[in-house]
Amino acid sequence: MTDDVDTQVSDRLVGRVLDGRYRVGARVAKGGMATVYEALDMRLDRTVALKVMHDGLGDDAQFTRRFVAEARAAARLSNPNVVAVFDQGDDDGTLFLAMEYVRGRTLRDVIREEAPLSPARALDLLTPILSALSAAHDAGIVHRDIKPENVLISDKGAVKVADFGLARAVSASGNTATQGLLMGTVSYLAPELVTDGSADARSDVYSAGILLYEMLTGNKPHSGDTPIQVAYAHVHADVPPPSLEQPSIPPYVDALVQRATARDRDLRPTDARVFSRQVHRVRSALDEGLPDDPELTGDLTVPIHQIRQDSGYDDGYTRGESPPDSQPIRHDTIVVPVDHGRPTGAPAKTPPPAPAPPRRRSRGPIALILILAVAIGIGTSAWYYGIHRYTTTPDLVNLEPAAATAKAEQWGLRTSLDNQDYSEDVKQGHVIRTDPKAGDRIRKNGDIGLTVSKGPERYRVPQLVGLQLDAAQQALSPIKLITGQIIEQYNETVPQGKVIAISPRFNTVVKPGTAVNFAVSKGKRPITVPDLTGKSYKDAKRTLTKLGFVVGRSTQYDEKVAEGNVISQSPNNGTLFAKDKVSLVVSLGPPLVAVPDVKRKTTADAQKILGDAGFKVTVQKAPFNLGLNIVAAQSPAGGRKVKPGSTIVITVL
Questions:
Q1: Residue 518: beta bridge partners?
Q2: Which domain holds residue 242?
Q3: 232/272 same-domain check
Q4: Span of 409-418, 490-499, 584-593 with lowest mean pLDDT
Q5: Residues 29, 114 within the same domain
Q6: Among 243, 491, 522, 594, which is 20 to 30 Å from 270 by CA?
Q7: Residue 213 contacts by C-beta under 8 Å, 6 or more apart in sequence?
Q8: pTM of the entire structure?
Q9: Which residues are catalytic?
Q10: Under a CB-based contact definition with an 8 Å cutoff, are residues 590 and 565 in contact?
Q11: DSSP state of 583
């Protein structure tokens, strides 16, 4: 317990917030490529599983591009058995996936604790895995890394498959992570992935077949001292029938495993949906308690002449001799041609002539009776296994499940709810399709899987206004909407890069694939600042206000700039934004000068003194003038500062 606590404390990511949104909590698991943490999505207040790629992966630009593309593809998968991908991000080189958090355990835990499982239990666990793979294969996505660690089983028993697209992203990167992937999952790799790196839906079928084998036996089909030896076994040895380890397993279950894991991909089911139908048939046979079903076993058995043999490799169960003629060839027996000692190229020895057989009494009537008995037996078996036990699947499409069940019961058949899916044509709550399809052959008392309509697939446009554009686009992927037009425009209140408006609007109900158009802020509009130096303050203020600026004003005297004009401006060039401030310094004209004191001077002296100082003089007589010509008063008074050239009024007695 102490070691675990120390590990959590020393983990540099625990407690960190990635992408400004995900607060990293306790570490849940660690693998070859990534570490999984429990995290809190602070924006939506929900617990998520955060899968963080190991250091170094984010440094590969090719891997990063592929990782983003594959994450978006996986996010488009909509299936209850797929672990949902909510978000993908890159926090300063730390690549991560935000996924649905599944509380429970992995299939690895189940195999470790419970294997070998009964065939019925194993197939019940495999069915939802194939449902998830079917959804992926329908969407053109190949998982490439099916293994028990990627199958999650919730506390409520729901089975979910994780990591769609991740293996493809890593294998395409060309770095050492690819080697780690091969080393970590080699026990489940299809032969073609080992030989040439190619993969398609049949590769996932192979891995699912290996899972089934391991659930049935508790062991992997191939083993070796090194991963390379295990990979070699996948390429050069067939998967043995699980009944070699668990003799109670019916032959048709053996055949199912070996068909799915055929080394030649052309012999496998073409995709998970076809494999799922085969699993459904085998499950029905188990429900009937059949120890063997020759027809079903024959349908699933790989043609023996097509099973490849590679000389020199001992797979642990094939033999170097063909079985004696007296022993019947089982469906799990692999026949290898044997040369009984004749050297290569040596002529065959002519056998000695056989001695003439002794004359015997004719057994014609007895042989005829035996032949007739065998023919009757074969005909009866063929009738029972090929005709008598089967009927035709009725058409249940467009019926409600209850009505479909009632109709099936009239045919002696059962129904089960396999899945739900969207439909543009079939009303919600009615059957879209059946497995087997209408008209297909089905065993009497067999089970018809119903897929029920959820109605037209529709989604509500989420609230995207105010989000960064990339976050808004990522929010569209889980609900199958796409990015439409992106129009950038200036906005004085919304920061650059954030969404101003969307069309269709928030909460509008739309079809999958609907394009959402974005208006995205370019930030505030930049405004060129004009130079208004020398202009009148009135004109300068009007111009700047019209552009959206706030005008600041200060004054000072200036001998060169006329009163009321702009002496200087800050700033006087470049660009600003609306409501930014532009400061103006306005001229008060030349500096003020002091008025000389001329009281008690004669009129002539006063005029001369004021005139020499640059003032204009106006003389007025006092009302009680005495004719003395002496200045009794002046305005402005002596000592006051006024503008140069001002008029000074003197009053004389």
A1: 486, 502
A2: 104-306
A3: yes
A4: 409-418
A5: no
A6: 243
A7: 220, 221, 239, 242, 257, 261
A8: 0.51
A9: 145
A10: no
A11: E
